[in-house]
Amino acid sequence: MISSGGASTLGGAGRAQTPLAVRMRPVSLDEVAGQAHLLRPGSPIVALADPDAQAPGTVSVILWGPPGTGKTTLAQAIARSSGRRFVELSAITAGVKDVREVMQEALNQRDLYGQSTILFLDEIHRFTKAQQDALLPGVENGWVILIAATTENPSFSVISPLLSRSLLLTLQPLTDDDLGLLIDRAVEDPRGLAGEILLTPEARAALIRLASGDARRALTALEASAGVAVSEAPEESDGAPAVTAEHVAQAVDRALLRYDRQGDEHYDVISAFIKSIRGSDVDAAMHYLARMVEAGEDPRFIARRLVISAAEDIGLADPHALQIAVAAADAVAFIGMPEGRIPLAEATAYLATAAKSNAAYNAINAAVADVKAGRMGPVPKHLRDAHYPGAKRLGHGRGYVYPHDHDLGVVPQQYLPDELQGRRYYEPKQHGAERDIAARLERLRRILDA
Fold first, then answer.
1. In 189-298, which residue ranges form alpha helices assigned H by DSSP?
2. CB 171 within 8 A of CB 69
3. Which residue, of 92, 102, 108, 237, has the greatest Cβ tally within 10 A?
4. Strand order of the sheet with strand 60-64?
5. How confident is the model over 67-104, as pLDDT tens digits?
6. In order of start, what are the domains of the chain with their CATH numbers?
7. What is the pLDDT of residue 303?
8. Which helix (H) or strand (E) element contains residue 412?
9. What interhelical angle do 176-188 and 215-232 show, nearest 10?
10. What's residue 3's pLDDT?
């Protein structure tokens, strides 16, 4: 409805203070969008939600997935469907004392009333080892069914005893179809916007694109966009306000990027990003990085391409480049987004401004080409393994000169097969650290070929 002056009371005054994403939480597993791989008949999640499935219903689970994929939703739907008592703790605010109180109360409920308890623990990765240890008695003895949620790899953030007593279930980002279903439902459902606005196809597509697999983000943006549309609707209008792509842009305060993560723009932008780094244009590289970040590109994909760029385009001209790229990839996996954009930007700036050389890239390509063409030859006998019985009788290792026994640490000796004698694969360039490598390599080759 629209009150005088265009003020919005979307969803009804009684629900206006509750966020749309909370109002639209499914009340049963049947309403859950996405995660079909976890909701097949007979799966652990379905068994947990079945009030008659007592044996399978006692297992604890750890839900691992990106934000907005339905971890809290699944926990609450399981509790409602199964009829079990539901207790929620946040690892941000709860301590050992809170955990022990929940365990004791769960034990009392089981013994006095025969009621089992689901303990939903959000962000379990924030719990210390001592706090996680406090969960073990309740989980092991079945006082509670633990459903823990985390956005970080449980192998590194959850103690082994707790992991071994729980099922680890991985949630996937929602597909565009899943997000579309959620958005359409929220527009029409009485719990949501109750049909009080219309959503144009362009606005719907923009919301899906900007959500990047996150249901909470999609519904939050929808609610904000609807508010903008209602506030701008003429007072004398009798029809439902239409939410447009422009309203979405206003609401989320970002440009509506023409970027399809599965289409041409995905490949065009990442291509421009890598070529800008290769061309040492740090400003252009930062621009394309921003486009990918704002469009919701998978940060792990960006990080992987930075690692490849460091090895392919920079190589030994700056040996630190690969270390920084790998560190950025690790940082993104550790802290996630949006903060992950910072190490990505740091790595991008370093790689774009570093000295460049593709000599190592060319070297392996040339060596692989020779191998594929059959230019190999047997390993020289003095280089072959001489440690197994009978090897010396075959002449393996005979005549091998141990470089460390000589002052220079390098001795004239054949290493390549006969067929490839004199073949050169690695040719360092006169850029950055490779300038020194080139001078040293020239000396090394003179000794080896003597």
1. 201-211, 215-232, 245-252, 264-278, 282-294
2. yes
3. 102
4. 85-90, 117-122, 144-150, 60-64, 166-170
5. 888 888 888 888 888 878 889 888 888 888 888 898 89
6. 4-10+176-186+194-252 (1.10.8.60), 35-170 (3.40.50.300), 264-353 (1.20.272.10), 372-448 (1.10.3710.10)
7. 94
8. none
9. 40
10. 38
Nearest C-alpha neighbor of 72 from the set 26, 125, 109, 19: 26
Read off the pLDDT of residues 351-374 as tens digits, 9 standing for 90 and up: 999 999 999 999 999 999 989 888
Please name the amino acid found at residue 327.
A
Beta bridge partners of 118: 86, 145
0.70 exceeded by pTM:
no
Q: Is 407 exposed, middle or buried (0-12, 13-18, 19+ CB in 10 A)?
A: exposed
Residue 190 clears pLDDT 60, i.e. is over it: yes
Measure the CA–CA gap between 42 and 76, rounded to whole angstroms. Answer: 19
pLDDT digits (tens, 9 = 90+) for 97-152: 888 898 899 899 888 888 888 899 988 988 888 889 989 988 888 888 899 999 88
Within the chain, how many helices (H) and strands (E) appear?
19, 7
Distance (Å, rounded) from C-alpha 289 to C-alpha 338? 13
